[in-house]
Write a structure and sequence with these properties.
Blueprint lengths: L1 E9 L2 E10 L2 E6 L6 E12 L1 E6 L12 H10 L2 E6 L10 H11 L6 E4 L1 E2 L6 H6 L4 E4 L14 H6 L8 E4 L14 H7 L2 H12 L5 E3 L5 H7 L5 E4 L1 H5 L19 H12 L5 E2 L8 H4 L16 H10 L5 H16 L14 E4 L5 E2 L18 E2 L4 E4 L2 E5 L2 E2 L18 H5 L5
Parallel strand pairs: 1-4, 5-6, 6-7, 8-9, 9-10, 10-11, 11-12, 12-13
Antiparallel strand pairs: 1-2, 2-3, 4-14, 14-17, 15-16, 17-18, 18-19
Helix pairs in contact: 6-7
Length: 430
Amino acid sequence: MLILEGRAYLKGGLEECAIGIEDGKIVAIKKSLKGDRKVDYGELLLLPGGIDVHVHFRDPGMTHKEDFQSGSTSAAMGGITTVFDMPNTIPPTTTLRDYEAKMRIVKGKAFVDFCLYAGLARPLQVPRLAKAEAPFKLYLAQTTGGLDVAIDEVPELLEAVPTEYPPIVVHAEDPAKFNSTMAGNLAQHNLSRPIEAEVSAVKMLREMNRRFHITHVTSDGGLKSLESSGFTTDVTPHHLLLDCSSQLGQLGKVNPPLRETSEREQIWKAFTEGRIDMLVSDHAPHTDDEKSVNFEDAPAGMPGVETMVPLLLRRVRSGELSIERLIDAVCERPAALMGLNKGKLEVGMDADIVVLNLRPVSRIRGKHLHSKCGWTAFEGWEAVFPAATYLRGNLVVDKGEVVEDSLGKPVKVRSQAEPSEATKKHVRPR
């Protein structure tokens, strides 16, 4: 039995203890334990591994930007031990055949556990993909990959999804609300895909009597449209920390867009109060050359899986965010949404554990990150990176170096019965 000792996050608080691990599971948590191997981390924190339910690792078809090896390495370096990869690859995973082909390609490349989304786009394929237990992603507006579906086509697609299935993850923008003028900078991009598009899409989804998960919410208006819906929500670090006044040019172009400072501040407040369920990276790398064209021609998306948790841990260190809220958003609620045996340090759970020292602060440098794209919108920002990352009891990252690779396994999703308290009641959960 492997024993990890330190200050573990247990049921909402930090407690000095020993965690016993066998066969990839936590088998005991006590003040002290005896085992074959013991690692004493002293005053360092032992936290659950993070779960990022929104990444684009570009594999297959766009592996010059990223592949599953580089993307999952980035995840492990940033304290993420499970990722959910989006379907807008080449070919897109909208058929069972392409879904199974992608699974074969990425197995053996993964440094963390993973799940693959299927694109909700072809009615005849939906039952087959559901039998494969693939979670579904629905695009209501155009973005990288061209998997957008017209709103009047959605009901037919929903009919084929089992009612007990996990919530469908939705890119919720109504293209009927977009402005057709060319966007030449971040402020204009914000206006071209306005907040009204987010609000309108949510309102249309509310009429469909299904449970949805609204990804990358960007505005106070969007949140208000979600009140009493029972939908779950997430937000990205770039929508929490950046806005359209940022001097990033094409590097800051994302869909949905970065908003104005006042909207960002409202979203940050909602996140800290628990009115947004989860944090996701929407890690969507493009090469520097691809971004170095005219703004209107530049692809939307930025890398983020390696920096997501470290950026927010810096806010924990400064007292702007509680560690309870961060673990709730990155570990507990994502596990509940997808029905994973992860997200908490409890007996019987997968032994996905991040070891952390909150004292040292690093500067983020794109050239030191592990994404193939080699850049970050957070160049020079302060962050707190993990000291070690364990995947099912295996040490995969130690002191900034990969020590075990290709240990990632596919995970299966299970339905989560209860809707989000945050969006059901629109109150603080803690």
